[in-house]
Amino acid sequence: MPSKISSVPFTRLSRSHITRQNLVRSTPSAIALTSQRTFSHSSRPTIIPSVRLSQNIASIRNMSNWPKVTAENPLGLDDPSLLIQRGLIDGKWVGTESGETFEVNDPASGKVIGTCPDQTVSDTKNAIDAAHKAFSTYKTTSPAQRQAYLAELHRLYMANINDITRLIVWENGKSWNDALAEANYAGSFFSWFAAEALRTNGETIPCSVPGTRNITIKQPIGVVALLVPWNFPAAMIARKLGPALAVGCTSVVKVPSETPFTTLAIVELARRAGVPDGVINVITTDKHLQDVGKELCTNPLVHKVSFTGSTRVGKLLAEQCSGTLKKMSLELGGNAPLIVFDDADLPTAVAGTIASKFRGSGQTCVCANRIYVQDGIYDKFAQALAEKVGQFKVGPGFDEGVTHGPLIHQRQADKVEEHVQDAVSKGAKILVGGKRGKGTEYIPTVLADVPDSCLIATEETFGPVAALFRFKTEEEVIARANNSEVGLAGYFFSEDVDRVFRVSEALETGMVGANTGMISQAVIPFGGIKESGYGKEGGHQGTEEYMITKLVAIGSRIKQ
């Protein structure tokens, strides 16, 4: 039975004009769809005749960003059945015994766009049991079969990428271009891990004992708990679920209460791709968040926990997992330094800083938080950056020309405002921005002459504020950049080849971007050091995180 959809007034949608789409680069499979499926929540998918969309980029640009909203289709999806307001346990879309729900809001308007069941520890135990039961058979599927599931999921995902993008804008608030870029990025993980399913190789190891042969085999670790954040509703579940499916693990996904719908739609597409019941289970919760998290970390049937979020929560989860010595992947907070040396190419440095700092309105763990600029280029860089940032347009993500949407909620906007006011009170100058917009909007900001004593120097802002610090020498800036308890990502810009290697090796971070502000890819090992966590996501290293390596030592028959 399809989940009931709340009737919500959408006054902001009843406009007389239809805006145009500024389309970011997309893959060909996002443009041309070869087939389409229909699906009832109470049945498995059936293939219907192919419906081919236009392959002409120009015609796609004529599509409206604003979805066509109706009472029956309140988010204006091409496939309304992808709006799912239930949890998933053992292949069934379910609520919770109490009937309690929580609301999901559009950050741009504050209006309710739907609800989800406020599921409990009891529901979580049922989901874990279902995953444990499914593991007994899913672990025996062939790599080729798991590759086929992921390849079909990737195909269906790209066929529905506009709906995924709409869901991201609705519940996260990103601009259309930003959301579409994330949707394409997320899709790349399904493609990558489909291939990784065929690369779970063991090895043969020479033995010093005559007549004995050593081999290793790779096996899935078991039931995994996937705790995903709100800032990348599509990419984070793709980065965690992809390797789990590829190697034969089953999972319980805990979605964020702010952005559950994107994950639920992706999981629905996985079901349509043929992934068996019980392999993926989803818990939606708000009020019971801490209790659900504790159950996932302490239940002995769960063998791994993957979490993306704050360092504070990551430490708490690690403590809870210690009782059963669960394997963990923790991608935690960052306070990323970005360094611009005098010998940097100015346009490259400005473009790279914007890419790193302002993606997702600054709400990413790898955003540049402390921007160190050398004296000789400081004034030119500050002026050029402020000029570019001043051209940004903030507003609802579906509006034409909007480059940056609102922040996720009021608490985040309050924190950004606190950081800016603190910096200004200690001598920083506002070059552009420095004020709030409507609702949870914060105008993209550039601060100059920021002192090391301000909050931005030691705390992750998680907002659209570029704080510029001066420095004189390479040795000085390396020491200041490394003066942090966290170490997720770092960036620098220089045309000196020797310096590129020297600084890359000196920065105490898990990832470094040299002359680029964009480091995230499906093929790389994403992760940090120090209190930014441990474990990797993406690349072949991300596949290894979901497997165990088992030694098999084979002896020979003893000759009489």
Automatic annotation (TrEMBL):
The active site is at 331. Its EC number is 1.2.1.16. Transmembrane segments: none annotated. Keywords: Oxidoreductase. Pathway: Amino-acid degradation; 4-aminobutanoate degradation. GO terms for cellular component: cytoplasm. It is an enzyme of class 1 (oxidoreductase). Gene3D superfamilies: Aldehyde Dehydrogenase, Chain A, domain 1, Aldehyde Dehydrogenase, Chain A, domain 2. InterPro entries: Ald_DH/histidinol_DH, Ald_DH_C, Ald_DH_CS_GLU, Ald_DH_N, Aldehyde_DH_dom, Aldehyde_DH_Superfamily. It catalyses: succinate semialdehyde + NAD(+) + H2O = succinate + NADH + 2 H(+); succinate semialdehyde + NADP(+) + H2O = succinate + NADPH + 2 H(+). It holds the Pfam family Aldedh. GO terms for molecular function: succinate-semialdehyde dehydrogenase (NAD+) activity. The keyword Oxidoreductase applies. Residues 93-552 form the Aldehyde dehydrogenase domain. GO terms for biological process: gamma-aminobutyric acid catabolic process. The keyword Nucleotide-binding does not apply. Belongs to the aldehyde dehydrogenase family. PANTHER family: SUCCINATE-SEMIALDEHYDE DEHYDROGENASE (NADP+) (PTHR43353:SF10), SUCCINATE-SEMIALDEHYDE DEHYDROGENASE, MITOCHONDRIAL (PTHR43353). This is succinate-semialdehyde dehydrogenase [NAD(P)(+)]. It comes from Kwoniella mangroviensis CBS 10435.
